[in-house]
Amino acid sequence: MSKIWIITRRELASFFDSLIAYVMIILFLGLSGLFTWLVGSNMFFINQASLQVFFSIAYWSLFFFIPAITMRMIAEENRAGTIELLITKAVSDSQIVWGKFLACLLLVAIALVCTLPYYITVSNLGNIDDGAVIGGYMGLLFLSASYISIGLFASSVTQNQIVAFLLALFIGIFFQMVFDAVGGSIRGTSGEILNYLSMSSHYESISRGVVDSRDLVYFASIIGLGALLSQIMLSKRNWQS
């Protein structure tokens, strides 16, 4: 665990050293704030304190931001050959993947913490459903963790950051839109399976404040599968070298 944490701290520090963290956080806060308070907010018209608009915007913002922060995690190290230095430190492929995973997740968590003033402001405007807010933040964290694992896998199969970004987006589109759209048009078992694979259905369930074991199993499966595939790609690299 200590080696994982060392990698996590190294990667998190590199985010802030290269200004990636600042750019990501500022853009995320700017977009979410713009739509929450100016463009999409209707809390003043319905006279109800809610962060539903924010969570809807964050759901889509993170879909694009996460591939941008994961695309360099393994691809750039493969291109530069610096990942080989980690092997000389007796670090396993699993520790490399989980260290980078935690660094990305912590960066997203920091960005979400920066939005807490939204909650404080809205709660002062009226009675807000605290359970729904907690569920919304939990849903965003599970969603982010899933897309981070997908992004790491995309980054592990190429040495080109742009290719890794586009591949992560391509895979994410199926979970974000395709499974939901196709599943809604198909009846029977096939439709139910596709609906279950849809990220939106599980995110919406948790964001309502309802924590279902099926949703936790779904997110854990996506995270575990993405991490496993990333480790396999790293192991394949080691075997070829």
Plain-language structure description:
- This protein is mostly helical and about 240 residues long.
- The protein has one domain (about 1-240).
- Helix content is about 85%, strand content about 0%.
- The chain has 13 helices and no strands.
- Helix 2 runs antiparallel to helix 4 and helix 7 (about 95-115) crosses helix 13.
- It is globular and about 55 Å long.
- Summed over residues and divided by their number, the pLDDT gives a mean of 86
Largest sheet features = none
> Gyration radius, to the nearest Å?
19 Å
Main structural class:
mainly alpha
Number of domains: 1
* Global morphology: globular
- Determine the N-to-C terminus distance: 26 Å
Number of strands: 0
Number of helices: 13
Strand content: under 5%
Residues in helices, as a percent range: over 70%
Low-confidence stretches: none
Order of helices and strands: HHHHHHHHHHHHH
Q: How would you describe this structure in keywords?
A:
mainly alpha, single chain, 13 helices, 241 residues
Describe this structure in a few short sentences.
With 241 residues, the chain is an all-alpha fold.
